[in-house]
Amino acid sequence: MTTAAATPVRRPPAVRALTGLLAVTAATTVAVDLLNWWYAPEQGFGLAVRSGWALLRSLGFLLLIWHVRRGRAGARPFGLILAITTVFAVGRLLVPRAGMPPLPGVLGFAVLTSLCVAVVWLLYRAPSVQAVLVRHPAKLTVDRRGISFREAPPRRPPVTAWLLTARVAAFTYSPLMLVPSLVAVGTILDGRLSAAPTVAFWFVAGVAVSYAVLFCTFFLLRGKRWARGLLVAVTLVVLGIDLPLCWALLGVDGLVRDGAPLVAAAAVTGWGLWRADRLDRAGPEAGRPRAAAGEAAAAR
User: Fold this and answer.
1) Residue 12, domain member (yes or no)
2) Quick one: 140 and 53 in the same domain?
3) Are the C-beta atoms of 288 and 161 separated by less than 8 Å?
4) Distance between CA atoms of 71 and 65, rounded to whole angstroms?
5) DSSP strands (E only) in 50-152
6) Domain carrying residue 162
């Protein structure tokens, strides 16, 4: 068995700048999260859960660097939803229950937001970056030369980048439900035992949503139009479960802190489905020139 090395990806200056920017963003995410923890007036169970979730974002940016360095096409939608949810995840730690947020936290959040905006701009507006991010994951291939790992386009029909964006955004539903459900465990620890069945339902629903989204997106990327409507229905059900529970168990503060990121993810999913539908109605030639140009640049 042999391992075929993929053709080296030429990294223009914009791509090298993007990888450096992602590393700085990952470090800034950790710094701002620790800063918010230091200045928080109440360092309770809920803040610990939300802070831990925000810290995981730094690993997401490191994973995005791995995708960018390998020229993966999925880096763009992954970077978009990671940047949006990072701003919400860190921003909800900044505002205290009462009073004004500390100035160092505000400045750190402003820097982090600027970095996330710059990351999205490079991913979607820099032509040299778009020309590199066209590759597919390597797969086990059997041919006349033997068995090897090499890049292989998926067998499913080509899909637009907006469908991939909707898919990535929808996969964030489950963790965005699980985080507030874990925060709500604090209400049980505080003596509100009657909330235990509701919190358990919330957690189980968050896990079930991941399977529902997986089912929808499996057929979504294979051109099944009914899967789009089903994903919209799943989105509405998720909002209908999560937002009322945030309000009932965590109050208005929890509704803003934990409900707003989910609403943002749902908006990105809906926007991606709508844009993909417009491109489909415009015809298969609508998105082909840019994709062809990117593949040609990568081949050179």
Assistant:
1) yes
2) yes
3) no
4) 10
5) 138-143, 146-151
6) 156-283
Residue 298 lies in a domain: no
Q: What token pair was written down for 152? A: 């292989």
- On whether residue 294 sits in a domain, the answer given is no
> Any idea of the CA torsion for 226, 228, 233, 236, to the nearest 10 degrees?
-170
Angle (deg, nearest 10), helices 260-282 and 161-170: 160
| 135 neighbors 95 (Cβ within 8 angstroms) | no
Q: Report which of 20, 25, 295 is spatially closest to residue 133, judged by C-alpha positions.
A: 295
DSSP letter string over 249-277?
HHHHHHIIIIIHHHHHHHHHHHHHHHHHH
Size of the chain, expressed as the number of residues it contains: 300
User: Are 52 and 188 part of one and the same domain?
Assistant: no
Coil/strand/helix, residue 54: helix
- The domain tally of the chain equals 2
Query: How many whole angstroms separate alpha carbon 206 and alpha carbon 217?
Result: 17
Q: Does any domain span residue 219? A: yes
Per-residue pLDDT of the chain (300 residues; tens, 9 = 90+): 444 444 454 577 888 999 999 999 999 999 988 888 887 766 677 778 878 887 888 899 999 999 998 888 888 889 998 998 888 888 877 776 666 778 888 898 899 999 999 999 999 888 888 888 877 666 656 666 666 556 566 666 667 778 888 998 999 999 999 999 998 988 887 777 888 999 999 999 999 999 999 999 999 988 888 999 999 999 999 999 999 999 999 888 888 888 988 999 999 999 999 988 887 777 654 444 344 444 444 334
Both structure tokens of 195: 């909330």
